[in-house]
Amino acid sequence: MKLHTLALISVLQLSLIAAEKINPRHLHAKRQLPSNSVASSPPPTPAPPPPATSSSAAPPPPPGTPAPPPAATTTSPAAVPPSPSSVVSVDPSPGVTTPLNTVPPLATFTGVPPLADISLGMATRPVPPVTAVFTPGATPPISGAPVLPTALALGTWPPQDRVPPTDSAEVQRWMKELDGFNVPALSPTINGSCLLDPANAANAASRGWWTCGGYTRDTDITACPDKYTWGVSFDDGPSPYSAWFQYVIDYLAEKDLSATFFVVGSRVIERPNLLIEEYMAGHEISVHTWSHSPLTSLTTEQIVAELGWTRKAIKTVLGVTPTTMRPPYGDIDDRVRAISLAMGMVPIMWTNSPSGGKFDTNDWRVAGGLVNGTDSFNTFQSILGNATLLDTGFIVLQHDLFEISVDLAVGYTLNAALNHQPKFTLKAIGECQKFPAGNLYLETNKNETFPFRNSTSGGVDVSGDGTIDTKSGDGGSTTASAGFINSIPFLTSVTAIALAAMGISL
Ligand SMILES: [Zn+2]
Fold first, then answer.
1. Could you state, in order of their start, the residue ranges of all structural domains in the chain?
2. How many Å lie between the centroid of ligand 1 and the Cα of residue 113?
């Protein structure tokens, strides 16, 4: 009975997640941090405070809302129908010139279930053993990068999965990075929602609001330049399914591929070892905010806090600072762009086809129980066919937070690309841009024109301690006081909830 109750709650949680794409906040908001948690701040409660800008916009997200308010845990999942604007629109143009693939072969090692069986409620695979652990002080695969910190002093962090407070000394120092840079005086949107905010949606073109019309700017990275090239990315981790359980990392290694991982700061401080494994395996690491909130809905100070704390978390764990970021839900406008660029981070989106179809694997819809793997994959195949119409390559949205989305990735979508005719080449996003790997981190970047530096090009204060962090691989000032943190708490928290949602007990 207890399990059924938990399962029901979890199903509702996952349904909510589906409506807003994969969002770790709702799972983690209900979690109690273990005593050995790396976070020194109090554990989040189920009712996180809404950001100042959305406190008056707390109603449940209506259809068309790509992102909920942070207080969405108070929202009845039943009141959150699938979001039409989030539903991938299959490009209706008749330009698919090659036959769509049938179900591709499975990866050779993973035991991925049949496509039709991938759905909410599916049985899960056995947990494989941990196969890779990197030692503190190890040398990363990027030339000139500092060695891994010899120990982690994780220190104090804002509460996980909430918009960080803006009155901290760190945020106030990071705000100085905007000095002398033109941040447009655009009002925050209401929840990053086109339907909740029709006034701003009507001006989406002028404010460059991606959410309502897919508007981008030249400073956005939206595609790989070479035709038939797929920019591979995984969002919302660090996830055990990528690193701890090795599904994604092993698959990529087997295929000799690299990917870009857009990581959430709240997960980074919780699972530093997983981030290290991704980084040390040669994959690219990028910023995906602290609380996974829709950035256009936040004040400028809140956006700075979201980016700053995530940037600092990655630097603390890896010793390097990403020069790129991806806004959750793709929710970006000219104000968010300006702030990101001023802080030294270039936005990376995912590709829209000329007729508006998004290169979205739909994995978040399967994890939420809205569709099964077959439905999702068929939709994705149709979209993939349209890649042949592009003059460029493309960047695909994909997630690694849940086993379902990882199953789709390593069993189907990536294989579909590798088996496609004409053949696609899969690369990490920086790699497909032909950036030297060092460009992707402040400490190793020798490129004076990337990340499109501006008046803050004299350096940024990643730690927020009042000192400017320089380039040339100085490795920062990570100090030793604590050992590496075991990431096992995941097994007793998110996995338990997810397995319960699937009717499986641990
Ligand atoms: Zn995300």
1. 2-81+489-501, 169-486
2. 25
- pLDDT tens series, the chain, 506 aa: 343 433 333 333 333 333 333 333 222 222 222 222 233 232 222 233 233 222 222 223 333 333 333 322 222 222 222 232 322 222 223 232 233 333 444 444 456 778 888 877 777 766 655 555 667 889 999 999 999 988 777 788 999 999 999 999 999 999 999 988 889 999 999 999 999 999 999 999 999 999 999 999 999 999 999 999 999 999 999 987 776 666 788 889 889 999 999 999 999 998 888 899 899 999 999 999 999 999 999 999 999 999 999 999 999 999 999 999 999 999 999 999 999 999 999 999 999 877 777 888 878 888 788 888 888 888 888 777 788 889 999 998 988 888 788 888 888 888 888 888 888 999 999 999 999 999 999 999 887 777 665 434 456 788 887 777 755 433 333 332 222 222 222 222 333 333 333 322 22
Q: How far apart are CA 263 and CA 326, in angstroms?
A: 9
Nearest Cα neighbor of 281 from 398, 394, 397, 148 is 148
Point out the catalytic residue in the list 161, 235, 400, 461: 235
Q: What angle do CA 475, 480, 484 make, to 5 degrees?
A: 95
CA 236/CA 406 separation, integer angstroms? 12
- Quote the ligand 1 centre to 190 CA distance (angstroms): 19
Is 250 part of the annotated catalytic residue set? no
Contact 471, 445 (CB under 8 A): yes
Q: Catalytic site residue 399?
A: yes
How many Å separate Cα 117 from the centre of its chain? 26
Q: How far does the centroid of ligand 1 lie from the alpha carbon of residue 326, in Å?
A: 8
- Using the mean position of ligand 1's atoms as its centre, give its distance from the Cα of residue 233 in Å: 11
CA separation for the pair 406, 239 (Å, rounded): 10
Do the Cβ atoms of 393 and 374 come closer than 8 Å?
no
Annotated catalytic residue, options 399, 400, 420, 469: 399
Cα–Cα nearest to 214, from 345, 91, 81, 301 = 91
Q: What global pTM score does this model have?
A: 0.73
Q: Collapsing DSSP states into helix, strand and coil, what is residue 495?
A: helix
Give the Å distance between the CA of 65 and the centre of ligand 1: 15
Q: Does domain 169-486 have CATH number 3.20.20.370?
A: yes
Q: What is the DSSP string of 283-327?
A: -EEEE--SS---GGGS-HHHHHHHHHHHHHHHHHHHS--BSEE--
Q: Residue 388 CB: number of other CB atoms within 10 A?
A: 16
Q: How far is the CA of 367 from the centre of ligand 1 (A)?
A: 14
